[in-house]
Amino acid sequence: MSGTSVPWWGRITVNTNTKEVNTYWRNLYIVVSSGFSWRAVQSKTRFSIMETKQVNEDAVVVQGTRATDITESCGKRKGQDTDEQVNSRKKRKSNGKQLKHGERYVPPPQKRNPGVSFNQEHFAETSYYFEGGLRKVYPYYFDFKTYCKGRWIGRTLFEVFTTEFRAEPLDYYKKAVKVGRIRLNEIPVNDLNITLKNNDFMRNTVHRHEPPVSGRPLEVLVDDGKVVVVDKPASLPVHPCGRYRHNTVIFILGKERGLCGLHTVHRLDRLTSGVLLFARTLEVSKKLDQMVRDRQLEKEYVCRVEGEFLDGEVVCKEPILVVSFKVGLCRVHPKGKECCTVFQKLSYNGRSSVVRCLPLTGRTHQIRVHLQFLGFPILNDPIYGSSAWGPDRGKGGLLGMSDEELLEGLLQEHRSKESLHLLDLSDEVIVEKSVVGSGDSVNNEMQVKAESLTGECEGLCTLPVISLSTGEPKPNSSISSNCKELEMKSVQIEKSDSHAEESSRSANCTMVVRDHLCGECKIVRPDPTEKELVMYLHALRYKGPDFEYSTRLPDWADENWVQD
């Protein structure tokens, strides 16, 4: 190279006998001389031994070879792999090893977006109708979805259903498999003996019935773009839970008011009525949450308790412990969380007292538990007014029994009174406590009537077709006319004479489709009474540094009110 200035990289000498290293520096010289920037050189110099050999064969011809030519000579990019290579890579990614012959492939779990709220797709699952002063929901098909839990791995579907999903008999699940209602990773299951693996995605399609709630309108007190404030009727849960989904405040606001994406600021028990506050945006929600933590929000309740309440201001600071999360049962206990409630009597009618309540903390059932401790339980409280707490019904926190004995006594009392629905128990809890199958003669008689009716329909009614793409059921238009007549008869059985006109108008809105696998379809349950839908506890006022929302007093808080 006489007479020619040799660049510094051309004068590099490597004192080594390793052939691959010499090849590396020679190829580096070609890349740099072809016009790459220094940053590109840094990224391109990290060739593997195989790549440098390929460059040596294809790119050494001319020093002026362009960078694109050299890049192409380094082998195929990831996006250029054949389908066979891509599929092979996917299989290797499954648990980091090649799947054995006959081994079931489990796709990776899908990422969930916690910010997604209920939308029109959910609201359109079914519709409401009103009957006898109650808001009711037409039965509908619903998919319960879950990923395989850690304790299920290595167990069969048969074992999981028989030990953890005992709300239905095993025979139900066998029939559900035959009609394709149980899916694993979106593939219909044909054998309950299939062994579950990590990340398995399960889908169980069921025919769902919801308990009726009060038909009183859900009044919106404020909607200013920042918050939504409603006057919640008693008997209505705030959000979907247990057997309730459409008969909840969240769904009613979405279906009837078009209010979606609301953020819950605080909650009220299902049987409690009154002021309920939602934030419209995440920013407002965070601001209100901070006020709650800083105790800048003041809540005021009114209730009606048994007997004549104490005079003057009464402060209760007893700690509260959760006994059962499944049942929602709490009690005063030294190991509980600290809390404080201020009470003041407003009136006394000779039998019961109206009491003003100011909870300074926000523990579960705080007002109800403290009133029970003081010896003045809320007049119709199905839990803390129960005789299962003993002769003094938990006054002073003295029980003389274990928590398990208390829980069993509470369930036993409501079973004998046919009022287990007041405890908002899931079907699994009821089965677990061995109270299923001990129904009363009235329910048995009604069930016989329902079975004799639906027995005529079996074999004639065809189930809705479930879409394979969406998993949602589609109405089937092939239901026979005989079946339709039987369905109308079944609706008529549930109607009372005093509400015949209203019921007829409601029943014509939607055809009730019965499901041959659904046990609820074979039972005609009595409607709850007004007394069962109301607990005499009302959230009267919610106050912050720069706002205040309140409702009018309920009828039962009137000084001269007398219980029927």
Task: Write up what this structure looks like.
- With 564 residues, the chain is an alpha+beta fold.
- Among the domains are: 140-208, Roll (Structural Genomics Hypothetical 15.5 Kd Protein In mrcA-pckA Intergenic Region, Chain A), CATH 3.10.290; 214-424 and 531-557, Pseudouridine synthase.
- The chain contains 17 helices and 21 strands.
- It has helices at residues 19-33, 38-44, 49-59, 67-73, 83-93, 120-123, 157-164, 170-178, 249-257, 282-293, 366-374, 403-416, 427-432, 441-457, 481-493, 500-507, 530-533, and strands at residues 128-131, 134-137, 140-147, 182-184, 187-188, 201-208, 213-214, 219-223, 227-232, 263-264, 273-279, 298-306, 313-316, 320-324, 329-332, 341-348, 352-359, 465-466, 473-474, 537-543, 548-550.
- α14 (441-457) runs antiparallel to α15.
- The protein is globular, with a radius of gyration of 34 Å.
- The model is unreliable at 36-80, 89-95 and 434-510 (pLDDT under 50).
- Keywords: Isomerase, mRNA processing, Phosphoprotein.
- It comes from Electrophorus electricus (Electric eel).
